[in-house]
Design goal:
This protein is mainly beta. The chain contains ten helices and 51 strands. Among the domains are: 138 residues, no CATH class; 149 residues, Jelly Rolls; 106 residues, no CATH class; 95 residues, Elongation Factor Tu (Ef-tu), domain 3 (Beta Barrel), CATH 2.40.30.
Length: 760
C-alpha cells in the first residue's frame, strides 16, 4: 500500500473530506514544471492552473498466473486548450517554448483541510509522445518511467581497448555475473579434499568465465573473468576450474591455476587436466552393500573384511571412456573410512602387496591405514590402449593375509571408489550457442494429445539474445556477496556485508543497486526485508514454511538482456511480484500459499461497494499437474534437473471441484540449482493453480482507498449470505488480492481475486 499520512487518512476516512489531484509536468532539464489541477489551486506558493478537464484514470494491473505487472499508466489526461489560460496563450503554445515529451511527471493527492505536507504522491513516470489535440483540448498519455531499469545487463563487455589480447570471438560479448553457491555438493557426506581429491568433481554446478586474455605475454597464462570488475565473489577455488568438452567438465591441475574472488579473475595454463568416471560392479561379493562404493555418496560405505581364508576381494569394471585428448595417466580413487584389526602382511605370500589393486597385468599397492588415496594403474595399459583410449577392464581390490600371522581380522571401510583420467585436451575453449534462447516460464500440456483444442496454454517466455560463439572456461564456486547496503538505513534482515547472496529477493536488490545504479530512494527496501529477512521473511511462507536460509538459488547471467526483465523473471521464479509503485519506488510482494493468508491490508464493507460484478477464473487458468525443470548447465545449454510430477487428483476429477481434465504446467526455472528448493517450488505452483478462484470487481466512491496497489489484500465485511458467487459464499475470513485498480480523484474501481482458500 501507499503510505498515507495520518492526517490525510483520517480526513478521508472520518470526515469524508473532498479529495483532489494535482500534477507536475516537468520540462526542459526537469528542473522546472508546470502545475495543473481541476481548478486553480495555490499550494505552498505554487500555482496549479485549473486546466484539467478529465483525469482519465490511473490504471495498474497484474496477471497472477505469470506474476507479471502491467505498466502503470494514465491514458486520457485531457487538458483545456482554451485561449489565454496559461502563459498568456493556449497550453499547446507551451510546446513551442518548452518540451514536455519524455520528461517526468508526478501526480499528487490532497484534500480540503489537509496541509500540503500531508499530501501524497500516487504516481510518477514520464510524459509520452502519444498526444492528441483538437481546438478545445489536448490529451496526454502518461506512463511509468522504466528507463533507469531498462539497462542492458551484464553491464560490462569484453572491449578491445581494455582486453587487447581477448579472443576475437569474445570482443563485445558480456562478462558474466554470478550469484549463489555452485560449490561442493551437500548431503552426500564429507567429500575428501586430500589424497584422492574427490572435491574436484563432486560439485553442485559450473558457472562460466569468459576468456579475456588468450595468452598473457607477461604471465604466460590464460585469463578469464567469472564476474565483472568491481564485484566481489564469495569463493573461488584453484582446484575447481574446468575445461568443458565431450560433455565433461575436466578440472585443471591446481598448481597451474590462480583465482582471485575479489578481482574477480581466474588464470590457468599447462597441459594437465582430469576427468572423473563412475565405476561399475562386476562381481557379486557382498551385493547388499556393494553399491555404496559407487553411488557417489560419501555417507554410505562398504566394509571389506578378510574371511576364514584370510582374504577379502571385491571387484570393479572400468566403463567405456570417450577420447578427451592426449592420454597422460589413469588412477583409481579411494575414499576410505576406518581401518580395523591387524594390518595384513606380505610375509610368505605370492602377492607383491597385502593390500592392493589387482589389474589385468599388474598389482598396485594401497597403503594400509594410509587414508584416502589415488592409485596409478597406467602400467596396466599398452601404448596402443592409451592411443585408442581403450581402458575397459575389470580389477579387484584385495586384502590378502594368507602369509601373515593368522589374525583374520583385517577390515577397511570403503566409502567411495572412482576413476580419474589425466589428459591433455585440445585447448579449444570455444562454446557455440543458439542465436536466441527462450526460457518458458509457463507452458501447458493438454491431457488429450489428439485434440485440436488448446486448453488454455500460457506461454510467458524470456527471449535472450546470446553470443553465437564465445570462448569460456568454467568454475565451481560461490557468487556475489552482500554489499554494505544490506544493513544501511537501519536495516535488520539477518544478513551482513560479505555474506553470500543465495536469497533470490536480495539477488534482485543487488542487480538493482550494483548493475542499475539505483539507491535507497529508488527501492522500497522495507518490502524486500519483509519478504526476504532470515527470521520471519514471507518468502518462507511462499515455500511451504521453509526457513528462508534454506531457499537456495544460484545462477550466472552470461547473456545480454534488460535488467528489469531479469529482475522480474527472477521475482516470478520465486513466487513474487516486482513492480514500480506509485511513490516511484520498486516494491516486491509475495504470492503466499492459500492457507498462509490470515490478515489483509484493508477490510471493505459490502455497503461501500458499488456495481459489484462477481466471477470465477476460467478453466484455462487451472494447472493441476506440475513439473519444474531446473539446474541450468551452462556448458550443455540445458536444464538438467527435473522434479517429480506433483498433481491434484480432485482438480483432475469429475467431482464438483474438478475440471475433468489434466492440465500440466512445465516451468523452466534457470535460477534454482537445489533439488529441494525446486521440489517445493513445484508444490507451491500446484497450490496456487490447481483450482478456479472467485473474482470480484466493484467500485468505491471514496478516495480513502487510493492507497491500495496491485498485490494488496482485501477482506469483506457485512456480506449478505444470499449473495453468492456461483453458489459459493463470501465469509469474513476470505482474502482477495488486488489484480487491477483504476484510480480517480473521488474513488476507484478494483478487480480482485481470491487467494485465501485452496478449494471451496
Amino acid at each position: 500500500m501507499l503510505s498515507f499520512s495520518t492526517n490525510l487518512a483520517n480526513e478521508l476516512r472520518d470526515r469524508h473530506a473532498s479529495a483532489y489531484w494535482y500534477i507536475k509536468l516537468y520540462y526542459g532539464d526537469e528542473s522546472s514544471f508546470t502545475g495543473l489541477s481541476d481548478q486553480d489551486r495555490l499550494l505552498s506558493d505554487v500555482k496549479y492552473r485549473g486546466l484539467v478537464l478529465d483525469w482519465g484514470g490511473l490504471i495498474h494491473s497484474v496477471d497472477l498466473p505469470s506474476f507479471t505487472a502491467s505498466t502503470l499508466a494514465m491514458n486520457g489526461l485531457r487538458i483545456s486548450n482554451a485561449d489565454d489560460k496559461i502563459a498568456g496563450g493556449r497550453f499547446s503554445d507551451l510546446f513551442n517554448t518548452q518540451n514536455y515529451v519524455n520528461r517526468k511527471f508526478t501526480l499528487h493527492m490532497g484534500a480540503v483541510g489537509v496541509a500540503v505536507g500531508d499530501h501524497v504522491q500516487i504516481a510518477q513516470g514520464i510524459i509520452t509522445d502519444q498526444m492528441t489535440q483538437d481546438y478545445d483540448s489536448i490529451t496526454l498519455s502518461l506512463t511509468e518511467d522504466l528507463s533507469s531499469v531498462q539497462v542492458e545487463v551484464p553491464t560490462s563487455r569484453v572491449d578491445a581497448a581494455t582486453y587487447t589480447n581477448a579472443p576475437e570471438n569474445n570482443i563485445g560479448k558480456p562478462i558474466p555475473m554470478a550469484w549463489g553457491d555452485c560449490g561442493l555438493q551437500t548431503n552426500i557426506g564429507t567429500i575428501p579434499t586430500g589424497g584422492a581429491e574427490f572435491d574436484r568433481y563432486f560439485v553442485k554446478g559450473y558457472f562460466p568465465a569468459i576468456i579475456t586474455d588468450r595468452w598473457s605475454d607477461t604471465g604466460a597464462y590464460i585469463e578469464a573473468r567469472p564476474d565483472q570488475t568491481g564485484a566481489t565473489l564469495n569463493s573461488l577455488n584453484i582446484k575447481r576450474v574446468y575445461y568443458y568438452g565431450d560433455d565433461k567438465y575436466s578440472p585443471c591441475e591446481d598448481s597451474n591455476v590462480t583465482a582471485s574472488a575479489a578481482t574477480p579473475l581466474v588464470t590457468f595454463k599447462g597441459a594437465t587436466w582430469r576427468s572423473y568416471f563412475t565405476l561399475s560392479a562386476w562381481d557379486t561379493f557382498d551385493a547388499g552393500d556393494y553399491a555404496n562404493m559407487i553411488d557417489n555418496d560419501f555417507s554410505t560405505s562398504f566394509t571389506l573384511a578378510v574371511d576364514v581364508t584370510n582374504t577379502a576381494v571385491t571387484g570393479f569394471r572400468i566403463p567405456k571412456i570417450p577420447k578427451l585428448g592426449e592420454f597422460t595417466s589413469i588412477k583409481v580413487m579411494f575414499d576410505f573410512g576406518a581401518f580395523g584389526g591387524t594390518a595384513p602382511t606380505t610375509s610368505g605370500v605370492a602377492y607383491t602387496y597385502a593390500f592392493q589393486v589387482q589389474g589385468a597385468s599388474s598389482d598396485y599397492q594401497i597403503t594400509w591405514n594410509g587414508g584416502d588415496q589415488s592409485i596409478d594403474i597406467t602400467a596396466d595399459y599398452s601404448t596402443a590402449n592409451k592411443d585408442a583410449w581403450d581402458f575397459e577392464q575389470d580389477f579387484n581390490v584385495v586384502i590378502d593375509d594368507t602369509g601373515g600371522i593368522g589374525a583374520q581380522d583385517s577390515t577397511v571401510v570403503i566409502n567411495q571408489v572412482g576413476l580419474e583420467v589425466e589428459f591433455t585436451p585440445s585447448q579449444n575453449f570455444v562454446k557455440s550457442y543458439f542465436t536466441e534462447k527462450v526460457f518458458n516460464q509457463r507452458r501447458l500440456i493438454s491431457d488429450d494429445v489428439n485434440s485440436d483444442r488448446d486448453r488454455g496454454t500460457i506461454r510467458v517466455a524470456t527471449q535472450l539474445i546470446t553470443p553465437e560463439v564465445s570462448d569460456y572456461i568454467y568454475y565451481s564456486g560461490k557468487g556475489r556477496e552482500f554489499g554494505a547496503w544490506v544493513y544501511a538505513d537501519s536495516r535488520d534482515n539477518g544478513y551482513d556485508s560479505g555474506d553470500l547472496i543465495e536469497n533470490p529477493v536480495y539477488m534482485i536488490e543487488d542487480i538493482l543497486r550494483t548493475e542499475l545504479s539505483l539507491g535507497s530512494s529508488d527501492i522500497d527496501y522495507a518490502s524486500f526485508d519483509t519478504v526476504g529477512n532470515t527470521t520471519d521473511g514471507t518468502l518462507g511462507d511462499v515455500f511451504t514454511g521453509t526457513a528462508v536460509t534454506n531457499i537456495l538459488y544460484a545462477f550466472s547471467q552470461m547473456v545480454f538482456m534488460s535488467g528489469w526483465t531479469l529482475c522480474r523473471e527472477l521475482a516470478a521464479g520465486c513466487g513474487c511480484l516486482l513492480f514500480l509503485s506509485g511513490d516511484g519506488k520498486i516494491k516486491i510482494t509475495p504470492r503466499l500459499l492459500d492457507y498462509d493468508y490470515t490478515t489483509s491490508d484493508v477490510t471493505l464493507s459490502y455497503d461501500d461497494l458499488k456495481n459489484i460484478k462477481p466471477g470465477i477464473t476460467p478453466i484455462a487458468s487451472v494447472r493441476n499437474q506440475v513439473t519444474v525443470n531446473y539446474n541450468y548447465d551452462y556448458g550443455e545449454d540445458v536444464l538438467k534437473g527435473i522434479t517429480s510430477v506433483v498433481s491434484d487428483a480432485t482438480s483432475k476429477g469429475s467431482g464438483a471441484n474438478g475440471i475433468n481434465a489434466t492440465q500440466e504446467l512445465i516451468y523452466d526455472n534457470r535460477f534454482i540449482i537445489d533439488s529441494n528448493t525446486a521440489t517445493i517450488f513445484s508444490e507451491m505452483l500446484l497450490y496456487w493453480l490447481a483450482y478456479r478462484k472467485k473474482i470480484l470487481s466493484f467500485g468505491l466512491s471514496s478516495a480513502e482507498y487510493n492507497d491500495l496497489e496491485i498485490g494488496d489484500t482485501i477482506k469483506f465485511s457485512d456480506w449478505p449470505s444470499t449473495f453468492k458467487i456461483y453458489g459459493n459464499t463470501i465469509t469474513a475470513t476470505d482474502i482477495y488480492m488486488v489484480t487491477k485498480i483504476q484510480k480517480y480523484p473521488n474513488g476507484c474501481s478494483i478487480s480482485c481475486q481470491e487467494v485465501s482458500e485452496v478449494t471451496d
